[in-house]
């Protein structure tokens, strides 16, 4: 079966729900491939299977809602929440990753939420960590909404435009073209994860050399 026929069989509503759900759950603090799902849906919109406007809207809604829920959970759960997440998702919420995210928040404040939407590591941390550090919610919401709009809208627009240009090629090569596009997305994700792991190792080595750091007050931004 040609890839075009397979894509035609997927209801658009299912694609919209998947985009909103995966992006929302990732933003809540659970590691999921939200960016890859969004890129795939945007590619489908370039081929006319779904609306790019609705794809972007669902991703924005998922990003803002997920981050807001994560913020609420982090504010109530505090540091023990990060410790529990570290035990459950050691590759994502390890002490090194937490330290990286905390330093970003200490340095950039609400802008860490905005720019964190574009970084795989901070995209997972932004909501819960902002709540743990008790960032004022209005400031968090502004940065969260702006980041979600620029991130989701930008990715959808770029992939849509690229997909329009590459549509004849993808149609000609069928599953091969779609497979290459997906492998490219996975390769990008693995590259980001390797960079995050390298940063984590450097921070852990520096922390071990410097000794224990004083605890944070948790009132930054108030």
TrEMBL record:
Main subcellular location: membrane
Domain of life assignment: Bacteria
Family: Belongs to the DedA family.
Species assigned in the record: Actinacidiphila acididurans
Entry's localization field: Cell membrane
Keywords: Cell membrane, Membrane, Transmembrane, Transmembrane helix
Keyword Cell membrane assigned: yes
InterPro entries cross-referenced by the UniProt entry: DedA_domain (IPR051311), VTT_dom (IPR032816)
Lipid bilayer topology: Multi-pass membrane protein
Domain VTT: 32-160
Residue stretches spanning the membrane: 13-32, 53-73, 108-133, 140-160, 172-192
PANTHER family: ALKALINE PHOSPHATASE LIKE PROTEIN, UNDECAPRENYL PHOSPHATE TRANSPORTER A
Protein name: DedA family protein
